[in-house]
Design a protein that fits this description.
alpha+beta; 17 strands; 289 residues; single chain; 33% strand; globular; eleven-stranded mixed sheet
């Protein structure tokens, strides 16, 4: 079961989508209200949704006909870094030749008790499915970072899973690690969607296949895949460090790092399209401008 938000004639709607892609309208306008109403009914979110859709017929539309929005207006998007071996290797390549011959801070954080966690985005910087992501004007080496996203409540409990694109400027970060905020955060530098998969419907979050395809002139110029089984850290470990001495808002999203990195001579350009697919969640597609 996945949850989507879409717009129709300037109205915003919440809906549940079954495995058969039958779409059912929900009375709530946002995901957190849905979760809260389920708690008030003393039901799991899945059971509560099932009780709602058993009383109605599916909508006579298909997913491709809907104008999807971000599945939740996340008050904050945080991100974890260097959680896959491939990410550590890529970060080391970005550093100077002298640093590559020694143990770097990326090596250290990969093996450290404390993970790398940073603020990625806010609602005004975050786009949804089929909305354009922007390139940063002072970078010449930019890539997408396909990631599994955790949708959290204010206690840090994982309510669901979504897809995130953590756009990154490899040249800016490689120049100096203190430039990380500039390498990660600018207007329209983060995409979330197309849906939230209820946590209780995911049997094993460490067996999700992530596929990234980059199109240029309608041709695939890069494609790669990774499985979440290759995550160095446990999801609960990442959320616990995010919560440590920190208050988070309900609906916060934590991106869990990337294991997919395009070749070192590749950079996104205007007109590209990035598709990120995660099994059981859907495909997040965004053009680049």
């Amino acid at each position: 079961m996945i949850i989507i938000r879409y717009t129709d004639n300037n109205s915003i709607h919440l809906a549940a989508v079954t495995e058969e892609e039958h779409i059912y309208s929900l009375p709530q306008q946002d995901f957190l209200s849905l979760v809260q109403d389920a708690k008030q009914q003393k039901l799991s979110t899945l059971a509560y949704i099932q009780s709602l859709i058993n009383q109605q017929q599916p909508l006579k539309v298909s997913l491709k006909d809907l104008q999807l929005l971000t599945p939740i207006v996340a008050p904050e998007v945080w991100a974890a870094g260097v959680t896959y071996l491939r990410s550590r290797e890529a970060r080391n390549y970005e550093t100077s030749k002298e640093e590559q011959s020694a143990i770097t801070f990326y090596d250290k954080v990969y093996d450290a008790v404390r993970p790398e966690i940073f603020m990625k985005s806010s609602p005004l910087r975050t786009v949804g499915p089929h909305e354009a992501l922007c390139l940063r004007s002072d970078s010449t080496w930019q890539v997408p970072e396909p990631e599994l996203g955790l949708v959290l409540d204010q206690e840090g409990q994982i309510l669901g899973y979504t897809i995130g694109n953590d756009m990154s400027c490899r040249d800016i970060e490689g120049e100096n690690p203190l430039y990380l905020p500039q390498a990660k955060t600018w207007r329209k530098s983060c995409a979330i969607g197309p849906a939230i998969r209820l946590a209780e419907t995911v049997r094993n979050p460490y067996d999700l296949q992530i596929v990234c395809s980059i199109y240029r002139d309608n041709q695939i110029v890069f494609e790669d895949t990774v499985n979440t089984s290759q995550l160095k850290r446990k999801l609960e470990e990442l959320t616990s460090f995010l919560m440590k001495d920190n208050d988070i808002y309900g609906g916060t999203i934590l991106l869990t790092g990337t294991g997919i990195v395009p070749p070192n001579d590749f950079t996104l350009i205007q007109g590209d399209r990035v598709d990120i697919q995660i099994s059981g969640i859907g495909t997040l597609s965004n053009p680049i401008e």
